[in-house]
């Protein structure tokens, strides 16, 4: 059985309540309520102190080297006013591999596919993103919510295509082209076995060697005329980016000594912006025809009206020149003209005939592939086919013929007798001299020490 005892009242509190007026009691209650609010509800200053400090920005560096921020946000994105425009963009770069698609790259970057479709639909310039090439690079710039703010397509170290989100929630297309630093370089070489060996020993790339051969292709047959002791001096541009060499520019001035005769050429850009090579006197280095339809190959059979045929073993005229070269080697049109035949026959295999004006015809036989059609216009050094062994051929080679007024002429000698292309107009000669004389003077200043050193090594 439980005892229910009433609590004994405190006589001090009871006495106090009896003597405390009702108005004062109400006032005391309000004071207690305000005190509770002050303790448990933070003031604006207290709330501000509790907010995290703004994130430290990581600027995105632009192509000029100056730091800048791209903080453009989509219109529907809610951003607190206190932090609007202060988010740092996250950057992620992906190298494009064989077989990669744009979908693969967006997945790898963890960017929603809807962003990709929105970008592709922003304009025709964005369609190039569907044709990505291995070795190119994509850089994604995202805001903290993972939304794409900018996509950069790096085609190479100098070319960049940007797609930047605008305030209208579309993407703006920008092409950024950086210019490398260019400095003139000089090389000198003497031929002991071949032009390619001498050029490589002098530090020239294969493309520069071929460019030099092309400059003199109307004057020197590099398959027939080259001799031991021939030499060259070449001045060209070297291109640097951030202090690192990234490639070569064009030949500026060059000289080639062949069998004791020296040929010189200088690059000139005319008032229309077209660049060509001329002699120091302003005569064009480009004849109506180049000497050979192939790049630096071996002549396996010369023009010979009484040659013994290698297949039929009988005396039959060889009305052209045979150039031995690997199957698939590009074959060039030796001059501007129109294709009058592009077909196949049992004897000639794949063949092409080109008419040049009224008097000249060139013929190209035993091709693996024909790359032009009858009636097509072609330009000098345009690839018209590739070397093969079709028809009556014992191995891969090109049979090349040159006809003047319907009569076969020796292709190795006829070009020397034909006129060159137009020279620099008289009205432009002052401009030509002002532009080219400093280049020729610089080449001569390089040649002096180089030739002196060569004489010391060969007393």
UniProtKB/TrEMBL annotation:
Its main location: other. It is found in: Cell envelope. Its cofactor is Zn(2+). The chain crosses the membrane at residues 21-41. The keyword Cell division does not apply. It holds the Pfam family Csd3_N2. This is Peptidoglycan DD-metalloendopeptidase family protein. It comes from Microbulbifer spongiae.
